[in-house]
Design a protein that fits this description.
alpha/beta; 2 domains; 40% helix; Aspartate Aminotransferase, domain 1; single chain; 390 residues; Aspartate Aminotransferase, domain 2
Length: 390
């Protein structure tokens, strides 16, 4: 290749899930020993049949579903999110606080684009969600890692020591990807106070909030009447309603920031997927009970992971929740090498901790992420059998 490459793109690591899929090339799996894929945190099943029928109806009978729509999303969907989120969090969220995006990754990219540029800094707890790190690298924003220790919980006091004049935001994911841990509401409140004290944005990505193991409100951030001066909330409809291919997410922030976000969205996508937005709106209005059942199934799989881990000699479970178990392995080799050996020797595809950690952090070499949302209890038992035989 002789034409120029943006050095920031060239220095950004390849998409981890796509890289892991390439490990399957040339490997043969059998009916007796099929591949167990616990690498990607996304539903592989289509939306439930009633939602698929609704999408087909929208496609046939809603002409505007095939046209450009408002850059910040369908007004009806924005209003429904504002209404349901206000009830769920006990806060005052208006439709003009809500923007619909092409997935939650775009919500993060849009938010960061309004906050930080070349040479600025954003604090991410480690292990981090790799797409957050990738976007910061592409933008020339320095990622400042906040080590979380064996409980995977970020420490506000440790975070404060990392804040400099270049820091623009702290970004948290709860329930956490990749760690699975659920941040306590009090902890999020401490981070809110910290960010307000230093005039930073607090980004809280709650992509997996529908699968939180706790009942009631996960936090009280929105009950603060001045939440919009600090908080930026991100969400994804992909996990709740299995709309991964339709790319529908949301960002909730103050209306002034959404004015800036609108510039970003208009430039990169013009508007979110229209059919996906109608589907998300239909899901919010009609699939509450179905989603409650999905949550219970995921919680049962989480329980199966927690019950099975003691059978693995030398493995240590660090965190488990939402779609994820995050663990230390007992082998001498790096997790990057172990992940490839798992494919060859056990027909298991999972991601190594090195994909979620800074290169100079040795902890990543000892850690693995297991995305268990797409395997049932029987599949989880088979997974443990294969890992035990490794």
């Amino acid at each position: 290749m002789t034409t120029p490459i943006n050095p920031r793109m060239a220095h950004t690591f390849p998409p981890p899930v796509m890289e892991a899929r390439r490990w399957l090339d040339g490997v043969t799996f059998t009916d007796d020993n099929p591949l167990i894929n616990v690498s990607q945190a996304a539903p592989v099943a289509p939306p439930p049949e009633p939602l698929r029928k609704a999408i087909a109806d929208f496609a046939l009978n809603q002409p505007e579903a095939h046209l450009y729509g408002p850059v910040l999303g369908l007004p009806e969907l924005r209003a429904e999110v504002a209404h349901q989120w206000s009830l769920a969090y006990g806060g005052d969220i208006r439709p003009d606080h809500v923007a619909i995006t092409s997935g939650c990754n775009q919500a993060f990219a849009a938010a960061i684009s309004t906050l930080a540029g070349q040479g600025d800094e954003v604090i991410l707890p480690t292990p981090w969600y790799f797409n957050h790190k990738m976007w910061l690298d592409m933008q020339g924003v320095t990622t400042v890692p906040l080590a979380t220790g064996s409980d995977l919980m970020p420490d506000p006091e440790a975070a404060e020591k990392l804040i400099t004049g270049k820091t623009k935001a702290i970004a948290l994911v709860t329930p956490n990807n990749p760690g699975g841990v659920e941040y306590l509401g009090a902890l999020l409140g401490q981070f809110m106070a910290l960010c307000r004290k230093h005039n930073l944005a607090l980004i809280v990505d709650e992509t997996y909030r529908d699968f939180d193991g706790r009942s009631g409100r996960p936090h009280a951030l929105f009950s603060d009447p001045d939440w919009a001066d600090t908080l930026i909330h991100l969400y994804s409809f992909s996990k709740a309603f299995r709309l991964t291919g339709h790319r529908v997410g949301a960002v909730i922030a103050d209306e002034g920031r959404l004015t800036e976000i609108e510039k970003f969205l208009d430039t990169v996508a013009i508007c979110p997927n229209q059919l996906g937005q109608y589907a998300a709106l239909w899901g919010l209005r009609n699939l509450t009970n179905w989603l409650a059942g999905e949550r219970l199934e995921i919680l049962d799989r989480r329980a199966a992971m927690e019950e099975g881990f003691p059978s693995l000699n030398g493995w240590r479970l660090l965190g488990c929740g939402a779609y994820f178990a995050y663990a230390e392995h007992p082998f001498a080799e790096s997790s990057a090498d172990l992940a490839k050996r798992l494919v060859r020797d056990t027909a298991v595809l999972m991601l190594p901790g090195t994909m979620f950690m800074p290169e100079d952090d040795p902890a990543g070499a000892r850690q693995m992420r297991i995305a268990f949302a797409n395997i049932d209890r029987s599949g989880i038992n088979t997974l443990f059998q294969r890992l035990s035989n490794l």
